[in-house]
Structures are given as C-alpha cells and as structure tokens.
Structure to design on (325 residues):
C-alpha cells in the first residue's frame, strides 16, 4: 500500500520514526518518487499572491522562487531591504517571468509588522498565501524592545500579529492558506506554557528555538478554528534537515556532522510550496512533513492538555497585542 507521501506506508512511517533517514535527503527522494508530476500544477499560483517572511535566503528564498515559478505574484518580507532586493533579482535572473517584489518586515517588532501590513493593504486587493518562515536562533537570551524573548517574538508573537493584521486581505481571497514553518526539533520539547519567555533555568538558543517551534504546532489547531469563519486554513510543517545559511551559521557542528545528508533548500521548501499551491482539499490545523500529516508527539512527556494549549493561546495573543479571543 502506498500513501500520499509517495512511499509505501510502512516505509514512510519507518523513515519518519527513525529521524535521520526521514529528515535527510534520502527520505525526501524516496518519498517523492510516488508524488504526481502535476501536483502542484505548473500554473497553480497563476493569479494568486503569496507573502513569504524570511525569504532573502535559504528555504524562504526557495519557497518564493518555487511559488513564482508556478505563476504566483510573490512578496518577499525581509528585515533588510537591500538583501531582499538582491534575492528578488536573483530569483528573476533565474526566471525572467517571475513576479517578485519586496517589503520590509521584522516580525519580532510590532511596529514593523504594522507598517508592513499597512503597506500591503494599500497595494494588494487580496492575499492567497501567507508563509511564516522567518526564524532566529540566538546565542544568548535576548529581549525585544517590548521585553519579549526573541525566539518567542519571531516564531510566535510576530506571526500571530501579522496574520491578524492581514485578515482582511486573506478574507478577500477564495480560501486563503496560512503556513507556519516549524522544525522537527520541536518533538523534544514540552509546551512551555508556564515559562513561555524562557526566564527560568539555563538558557539555550537551540532549546528556545525548539520550544517556540512546539508552540507553533500547538497553536495551529486553535488558529485554524479561529479563522475558519473567514475560510482561512492554517497549516504547520517541518522541512526536515536542510542545508541553509542559517544552519551553517547557528549549528556549525550539526552541519559538519550531517552535511552529506542535508536536503537542498528547494527540497526543504517542497512541503510548504505544496501546501500553498496544491489543488487538493487539505485538512486545516494539522502538522505536515513531506506532504503527509505527521504525529505531533513521539514522546509521552511532551504531551499537553487542551487547557494548556488554550492558556498559551491567551498569553500569546495578549503578548502580541491582539487581545484574547
């Protein structure tokens, strides 16, 4: 029996549970053998607009290039306009038909998020796809001007606020999609509902990263329910292990150890692109890897209750300046 991942079901599950094979380029290349050649369709994004945060390099840039290659109008949301413009030029040099533009957005900064949302509202009539890809892995605990730990602000609070501010544009589209880029590292972490700002214990950037990626997964079903009346679907996914500038800079030892196994940025981007562009009807509020819904937990100790997820939802919305709802 072969499932939607393209590999026999038992093999796909084995690859996923054994981590290294499934997250590596081997897992991707085995699974893709069974994927339909026309999914997404070559013109799947024609007439549609996508916004990709953190898209000046790595997986974000690969997502933007792929969506533009499918005919989409793609906006790169980046902290540094110069680097964003360079990325846009490189995408268009590789594909002269690509429709790519740039907006400035530091998702950890509420004022920058507001400015970005205002700019997009003024220039776009609708937004079909919003991909939250921007990420950080700090070497020490750093707070934003608002007093929030930076990985929390970047991976959770900023995406919540940007999504909320762009709801009118997302609502104007015919069934828009919001996609959060998580990480397989979240499987190691409990939901830090009692210490979301990582004020207690010894701080670790890699732990903070994984904790906030766990938060993204936990909040996805609540986001899906919250935005269902506007026909906005919400999806979370992880890319496997990909060879990106962020991995090289933040995790040099990991990069040296796993280099030959790492996926290319395009391979890491594949599921996000597929979630954005496929014509298939997808269940909202789920966690994906290599085009298949994956378990949210592999360890008993990481499980949390619905009440704990709701408490985190309330805290994050208030911290993001949205209001509890």
């Amino acid at each position: 029996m072969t499932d939607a991942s393209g590999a026999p079901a038992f093999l796909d599950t084995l690859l996923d549970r054994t981590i290294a094979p499934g997250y590596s380029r081997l897992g991707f290349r085995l699974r893709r053998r069974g994927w339909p050649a026309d999914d997404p369709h070559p013109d799947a994004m024609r007439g549609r607009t996508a916004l990709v945060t953190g898209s000046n390099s790595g997986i974000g840039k690969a997502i933007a290039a792929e969506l533009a290659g499918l005919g989409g109008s793609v906006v790169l949301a980046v902290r540094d306009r110069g680097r964003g413009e360079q990325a846009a030029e490189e995408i268009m040099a590789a594909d002269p038909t690509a429709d790519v533009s740039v907006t400035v957005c530091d998702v950890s900064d509420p004022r920058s998020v507001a400015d970005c949302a205002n700019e997009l509202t003024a220039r776009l009539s609708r937004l079909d796809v919003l991909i939250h890809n921007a990420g950080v892995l700090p070497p020490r605990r750093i707070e934003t001007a608002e007093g929030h730990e930076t990985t929390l602000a970047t991976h959770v609070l900023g995406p919540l606020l940007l999504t909320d501010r762009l709801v009118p544009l997302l609502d104007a589209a015919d069934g828009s999609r919001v996609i959060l880029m998580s990480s397989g590292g979240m499987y190691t972490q409990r939901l830090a509902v009692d210490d979301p700002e990582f004020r207690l214990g010894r701080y670790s950037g890699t732990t903070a990263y994984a904790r906030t990626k766990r938060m993204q997964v936990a909040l996805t079903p609540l986001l899906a329910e919250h935005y269902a009346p506007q026909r906005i679907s919400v999806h979370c996914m992880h890319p496997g292990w990909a060879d990106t500038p962020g991995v090289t800079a933040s995790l040099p030892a990991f990069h040296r150890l796993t280099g030959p196994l790492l996926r290319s940025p395009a391979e890491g981007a594949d599921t996000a692109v597929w979630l954005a562009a496929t014509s298939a009807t997808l269940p909202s509020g789920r966690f994906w890897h290599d085009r298949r819904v994956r378990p949210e937990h592999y360890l008993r100790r990481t499980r949390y209750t619905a009440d704990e997820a709701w408490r985190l939802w309330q805290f994050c919305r208030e911290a993001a300046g949205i209001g509890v709802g």
